[in-house]
UniProtKB/TrEMBL annotation:
GO cellular component term of the entry, any: cytoplasm
Gene3D superfamilies cross-referenced by the UniProt entry: alpha/beta hydrolase (3.40.50.1820)
Function: Contributes to the regulation of the Wnt signaling pathway. Down-regulates CTNNB1-mediated transcriptional activation of target genes. May be involved in neuron differentiation.
Species annotation: Anabas testudineus
Name under which the protein is recorded: Protein NDRG2
Superkingdom of the organism of origin: Eukaryota
Keywords: Cytoplasm, Developmental protein, Differentiation, Neurogenesis, Wnt signaling pathway
Record's compositionally biased regions (Polar residues): 337-347
Disordered as annotated region, ranges: 301-347
Length: 360
């Protein structure tokens, strides 16, 4: 059965260079697009590509529960794919804003009408910018290590081609060695440096938290948004800052315990659990599927609990679920803040009001 699933997956894999007004974007499309269902759109961080940034996550067996229902489109910034040639001297590397504006051409190429964005670092910033400028194309965002500010977290790193190391906890020597090797051997150093300079020169994301009774037209992310950061990551402060600037009614902040700057690599199972409940809260995963997930979760050392009645024997107060209509697609979607509960020996759930904040 596994071999058959692999053959079916390979039959629906499209590996293409999509031409945009800001250069060619290497894209990998997997799965079959379905009517009235979004596509998961990923965008990697600096020094990484779709394989090194997301392969651990998407190769995890639990991820199949999502990818069977939602196709995936991986997007790589110009010159960041494996085996990329050095970009021509005459080529001006696009800004972060321009990279976000290249995405509509990618969606048009594949016939994609809506996405759930999954981005890390620079990729998270690009997807957030895309969602601000094209809210009708984005149903949801999962943003790992997003920095909404103009001054880069990594500007003090001496070796810019290994900037991803700055994101990881220094005690994880094996992971650091793996990614240092990846960056130095498989990535084009000149192209990585150009991507880094583009990110380091980015503009601040001009978002503002709506205030009751205030201006109803403030610029903010309109879609359901999950912010993810490892509690040992240098990005914690800026991710919390980003959370403070977003709409509390549709934003959840997830801090992952015992995790550095690459949670999708370091703790893929936990990230997948969060993804499943986030997507289910948007109305895209069946209750039967989630029931099977819940039964597996309670028999392991995992961390998630989800209950439609929102009841649980925990001392923390839970925020109530929310329902809003999606007029564009003519359906009602249920956006429910995700409640996550660690049952490990060392971690306790912390849920803080305003935007829902969760520690796992």
């Amino acid at each position: 059965m596994l071999r058959l699933d692999l053959m079916v997956w390979l039959n629906f894999l499209h590996d293409e260079h999509v031409e945009t007004q800001y250069g060619n974007m290497h894209c990998i499309m997997t799965g079959t697009r379905k009517a009235n269902r979004p596509v998961i759109l990923t965008f990697h961080d600096i020094g990484l590509n779709h394989k090194s940034c997301f392969e651990t996550l998407f190769n995890h067996m639990d991820m199949q529960e999502i990818t069977r229902q939602l196709p995936v489109c991986h997007v790589e910034a110009p010159g960041q794919h494996v085996g990329a040639k050095t970009l021509p001297n005459a080529y001006t590397y696009p800004s972060m804003d321009q990279l976000s504006e290249a995405l509509p051409a990618v969606l048009s190429h594949f016939g994609i009408h809506s996405v759930i964005g999954l981005g890390v670092g620079a990729g998270a910033y690009i997807l957030a910018r895309f969602a601000l400028n094209h809210p009708d194309l984005v149903d949801g965002l999962v943003l790992i290590n997003i920095n909404p500010n103009s001054e880069g977290l990594m500007h003090t790193v001496a070796n810019k081609t290994t900037c991803v190391m700055f994101h990881e906890i220094q005690t994880n020597h094996d992971l650091i060695a793996t990614y240092r090797h990846h960056i130095s051997v498989t990535m084009n150093q000149s192209n990585v440096s150009q991507f880094f300079r583009s990110y380091n020169n980015r503009n601040t994301l001009e978002v503002e938290r709506p205030v009751p009774g205030g201006n109803i037209n403030v610029r903010t992310l309109k879609c359901a948004t999950l912010l993810v950061v490892g509690d040992n990551s240098p990005a914690v402060e800026v991710v919390v800052d980003c959370n403070a600037k977003l709409n509390p009614t549709n934003t959840t902040l997830l801090k992952m315990a015992d995790c550095g700057g690459l949670p999708q690599v370091d703790q893929p199972a936990k990230v997948i659990e969060a993804l499943k409940y986030f997507i289910q809260g948007m109305g895209y995963m069946s209750s039967a599927s989630m029931t099977r997930l819940r039964s597996r979760t309670t028999s392991s050392s995992s961390f998630l609990s989800f209950d439609g009645s929102r009841s649980r024997s925990h001392t923390n107060e839970l925020q109530h679920g929310q329902t809003h209509s999606d007029e564009k697609r003519g359906r009602t979607r249920h956006n429910t803040d995700v409640s996550m509960e660690s049952i490990s020996n060392s971690n306790v759930d912390q849920i803080i009001s305003k935007s829902t904040e969760v520690a796992c």
